[in-house]
């Protein structure tokens, strides 16, 4: 049997098995989920033949499935992150109800993503896209929190994206007579400018919704923070990358080939603006989930900028960051989930000082945050570096400043995240907190190891990125295992950086620990120097509320301006409009009779000009 | 010039040089500030005595690993940055890892220490430390913007992103970049006091408000490591400015002269000003320095 069909069957079968397993009892269900989480990646990495294709014809539409290297890169994100998140979910969802639905939707969204990445025609792309959207929608409303607001927002924006895509597909079919992606790419140059822009931009719109580009990001903060965290790590890590996948081939394969770089450029600007504004929003959140949600939007902004610029280095930066973002955001959402489960809340004004209680969780959070902030020597720096250099090489100086502003301000929320949850004073109300279960810790640790390794050997990711880029039409993509080079020939050797950091750190670690560490006593966080003021053990001295008040004062003029408000006003406007419509459609038969009579009267009066007699 | 032993020797010597010079600068600045305030002031080697005294003090308390690591992050950052910044022109002195990093890398590695320190300070549970960190990070967003604008202007104008490349540009043309790209220099210079945290930008330590802020729970070896790191880092920052804008230095005496002149600017400014509030500080940096940064970018691009 064809390995791709089998892959889809395995995932769909896994979804059904875990559904029925959980219907029978929890243990059986968990074992099934665990087995499925192992089988899918093992099958994908060992058995799937990436040269194979499947084609079939359904009611006159020719459909074809088959991997290309660009899709394979994104599939790797899905295939590594989702199983880890599934395993994590076994621990995280232990006390939840309706697990059968949860795992069913979870696995179906994996199916959707897998399908999207191997679709070679628009019909299957659209079908899988909708499978993904619907299954993720079921998970967004799974906990039943704020369904009215977040659920509807997510649905409306997904629908806007899907209809835009559908419209594009119809126009493409009308113009080319084929549903194949390759036919569209091939005949794109021959279209009129209008058709080019219309189809391309409609497709971009569809993809941009999923990658939460401003101003289409409104659904994201709520959806990311209301979904069970086990799924959010996939939602933000892998599912949002489907949008990036689409943006990538539309910008590079279509617009850049047709000398319409301006579209990519506009997209890049939108990404940069997204990055800045979402970062500013993230800084002032006090719920760790919301903070991460906004931070995801900002990080996706960087990726979109990289893709939009469209040079070799910037695409590489974008794709590399896409992979890295999946890893560190995956970890961070899992961390928040662990904290939520163990401490009961993720409000950073309430929780504090968990580092001593949850050391492993803290360690993984630390690694992920360092990677997110882009600080050397971890992997995140590599992506940031490439993005900056590609912008500088292109003389996009304003965009560099925007991105830099965003990532400097990102340090603020990075610190706040770690400080709010893990540092600060230990409070007696959190004395009962214990480390999360190993099922949850191990996936986080595995992803952290990946982040540590990419710091010194980013080449292991570059290899696949370069393959994917060859598929996008770049020749001889230049990459080295641990030396980064920009278009002007300036380079950074990350191995030297790693070496220097490790050597100095270890040397001084010995120096500072030797004679002294043993003799010092470990004291509680309540035992602080307070300039003579008496502090009782029950006094909570943690400074967490309004942590960045001064910064808020600086940004006051900008923060007033919120896109969400405009959408809400628009929504209110629509409501008023429908209210008016309701007055016309009263539901009373006599009123309708009057309408019919009026209509006939109008016809009679104007019949001369309408019908000609 | 080969051999791992030679390289290690170079790294150690560079570090010692940076430490000694940085320490003396600290001593001089204390003396100068004292004289401005009509005091006698401590001797110039006072900082050495402080570090030594702290080194031999017993460390009596610790708050766990993050607290223990905080000074290590700082010193790792200082020394690593030092390794990547050329001390003298033409590789006359030990070149260390000068060719393995560029300006963007330096910008990022320079943040590494402060964040590590911030985590250590946060883990102590002292509210003053947390307030200090919150202020420090906010101020960083302030001064990094004009500073980066200046650097991006240089990079775009001379089509290189490495420090050595920019130094080569200066030695070939014979003029310092502070004259050939004056606006970038002005922006960088206006942003500079934020990095050195003298008044009016000493909002992080703020002795009278925050009881020295983030470092308030560190003593003994911890504090001595931090002071060492601080003096090395001061030297690195000054050397970087000299390398970028003032043509580097061909020998150590020239280097000391140039860096000391530059160093006096934040010190003297600090001696006669009162402390800003955090938002005032950020507004300052996003005012004129950023304006000059924009001019520099436009100057570089066209």
| Count of helix runs of chain A | 22
Strand order of the largest sheet of chain A: 1-2
Oligomer: heterodimer
Instruction: Give the SSE order of chain A as H and E letters.
Output: HHEEHHHHHHHHHHHHHHHHEEHEHHH
Q: Residue share in helices of chain A?
A: over 70%
Query: Which structural category fits the helices and strands of chain A?
Result: mainly alpha
List the chains of the largest interface with their residue counts.
Answer: A-B, 76 and 76 residues
Percent strand of chain A equals: under 5%
Q: What's the main sheet of chain A like?
A: 2 strands, antiparallel
As a percent range, the share of strand residues of chain B is under 5%
Sequence stretches where pLDDT stays below 50 over 5 or more residues of chain B: none
Give a quick account of the main beta sheet of chain B: strands, pairing sense, barrel closure.
none
Query: What is the SS-derived class of chain B?
Result: mainly alpha
| Count of strand segments of chain A | 5
Radius of gyration of chain B: 19 Å
Roughly how many Å is the radius of gyration of chain A? 27 Å
Distance between the termini of chain A: 68 Å
Approximate shape of chain A? globular
Q: Name the average pLDDT of chain A.
A: 84
């Amino acid at each position: 049997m064809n390995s791709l069909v089998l892959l889809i069957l395995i995932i769909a079968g896994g979804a059904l098995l875990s559904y029925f397993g959980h219907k029978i009892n929890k243990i059986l269900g968990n074992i099934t989920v665990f087995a499925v989480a192992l089988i899918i990646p093992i099958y994908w990495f060992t058995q799937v033949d990436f040269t194979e294709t499947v084609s079939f014809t359904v009611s006159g539409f020719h459909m074809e499935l088959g991997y290309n290297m660009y899709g394979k890169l994104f599939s790797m994100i899905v295939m590594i992150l989702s199983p880890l998140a599934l395993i994590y979910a076994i621990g995280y969802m232990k006390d939840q109800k309706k697990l059968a639905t949860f795992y069913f939707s979870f696995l179906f969204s994996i199916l959707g993503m897998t399908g999207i990445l191997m679709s070679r025609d628009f019909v299957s792309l659209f079908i899988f896209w909708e499978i993904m959207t619907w299954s993720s929608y079921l998970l967004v409303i799974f906990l039943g929190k704020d369904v009215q607001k977040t659920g509807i927002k997510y649905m409306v924006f997904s629908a806007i994206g899907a209809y835009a895509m559908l419209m594009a597909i119809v126009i493409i079919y009308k113009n080319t007579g084929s549903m194949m992606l390759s036919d569209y790419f091939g005949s794109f140059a021959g279209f009129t400018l209008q058709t080019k822009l219309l189809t391309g931009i409609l497709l971009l719109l569809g993809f941009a919704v999923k990658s939460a580009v401003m101003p289409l990001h409104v659904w994201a903060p709520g959806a990311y923070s209301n979904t069970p965290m086990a799924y959010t790590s996939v939602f933000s890590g892998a599912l949002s990358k489907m949008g990036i996948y689409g943006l990538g081939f539309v910008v590079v394969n279509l617009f850049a080939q047709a000398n319409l770089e301006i579209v990519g450029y506009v997209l890049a600007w939108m990404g940069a603006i997204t990055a800045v504004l979402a970062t500013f929003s993230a800084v002032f959140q006090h719920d760790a989930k919301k903070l991460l949600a906004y931070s995801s939007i900002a990080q996706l902004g960087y990726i979109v900028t990289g893709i939009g610029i469209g040079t070799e280095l910037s695409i590489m930066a974008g794709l590399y960051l896409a992979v890295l973002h999946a890893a560190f955001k995956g970890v961070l959402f899992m961390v928040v989930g662990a904290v939520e489960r163990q401490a009961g809340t993720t409000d950073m004004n309430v929780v504090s000082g968990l580092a001593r209680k949850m050391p492993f969780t803290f360690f993984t959070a630390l690694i992920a945050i360092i990677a997110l902030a882009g600080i050397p020597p971890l992997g995140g720096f590599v992506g940031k570096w490439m993005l900056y250099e590609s912008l500088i090489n292109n003389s996009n100086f304003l965009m560099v400043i925007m991105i830099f502003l965003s990532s400097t301000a990102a340090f603020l929320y990075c610190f706040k995240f770690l400080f709010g949850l893990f540092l600060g004073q230990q409070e007696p109300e959190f004395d009962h907190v214990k480390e999360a279960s190993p099922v949850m810790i191990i996936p986080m640790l595995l992803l952290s190891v990946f982040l540590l390794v990419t710091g010194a050997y980013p080449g292991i990711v570059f290899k696949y990125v370069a393959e994917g880029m060859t598929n996008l039409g770049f020749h001889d993509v230049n990459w080295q295992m641990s030396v980064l080079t920009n278009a002007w020939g300036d380079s950074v050797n990350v191995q030297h950086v790693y070496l220097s950091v490790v050597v100095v750190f270890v040397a001084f670690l010995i120096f500072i620990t030797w004679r002294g560490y043993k003799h010092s006593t470990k004291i509680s966080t309540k035992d602080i120097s307070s300039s003579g003021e008496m502090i009782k053990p029950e006094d909570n001295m943690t400074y967490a509320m309004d942590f960045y008040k001064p910064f808020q004062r600086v940004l006051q003029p900008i923060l007033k301006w919120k896109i969400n408000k405009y959408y809400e006003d628009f929504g209110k406007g629509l409501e008023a409009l429908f209210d008016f419509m309701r007055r016309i459609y009263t539901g009373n038969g006599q009123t309708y009779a009057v309408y019919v009579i009026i209509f006939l009267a109008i016809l009679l009066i104007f019949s001369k000009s309408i019908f000609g007699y | 010039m080969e051999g791992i032993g030679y390289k290690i020797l170079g790294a150690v010597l560079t570090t010692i040089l940076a430490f000694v010079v940085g320490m003396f600068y600290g001593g001089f600045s204390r003396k100068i500030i004292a004289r401005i305030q009509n005091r006698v002031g401590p001797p110039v080697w006072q900082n050495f005595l402080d570090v030594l005294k702290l080194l031999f003090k017993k460390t009596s308390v610790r708050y766990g690993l993050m607290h223990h690591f905080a000074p290590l992050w700082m010193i790792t950052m200082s020394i690593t940055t030092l390794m990547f910044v050329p001390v003298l022109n033409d590789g006359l002195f030990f070149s260390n890892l000068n060719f393995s990093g560029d300006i963007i890398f330096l910008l990022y590695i320079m943040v590494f220490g402060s964040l590590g320190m911030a985590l250590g300070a946060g883990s102590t549970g002292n509210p003053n430390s947390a307030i200090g960190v919150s202020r420090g990070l906010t101020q960083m967003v302030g001064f990094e913007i004009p500073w980066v604008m200046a650097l991006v202007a240089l990079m775009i104008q001379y089509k290189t992103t490495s420090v050595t490349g920019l130094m080569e540009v200066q030695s070939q043309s014979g003029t310092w970049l502070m004259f050939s790209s004056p606006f970038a220099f002005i922006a960088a210079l206006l942003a500079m006091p934020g990095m050195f945290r003298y008044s009016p930008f000493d909002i992080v330590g703020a002795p009278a408000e925050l009881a020295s802020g983030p470092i308030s729970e560190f003593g003994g070896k911890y504090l001595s490591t931090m002071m060492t790191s601080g003096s090395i880092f001061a030297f690195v920052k000054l050397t970087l400015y000299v390398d970028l804008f003032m043509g580097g230095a061909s020998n150590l005496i020239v280097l000391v002269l140039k860096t000391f002149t530059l160093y006096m600017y934040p010190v003297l400014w600090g001696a006669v000003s009162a402390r800003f509030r955090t938002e005032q500080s950020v507004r300052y940096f996003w005012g004129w320095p950023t304006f000059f940064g924009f001019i520099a970018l436009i100057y570089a691009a066209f």
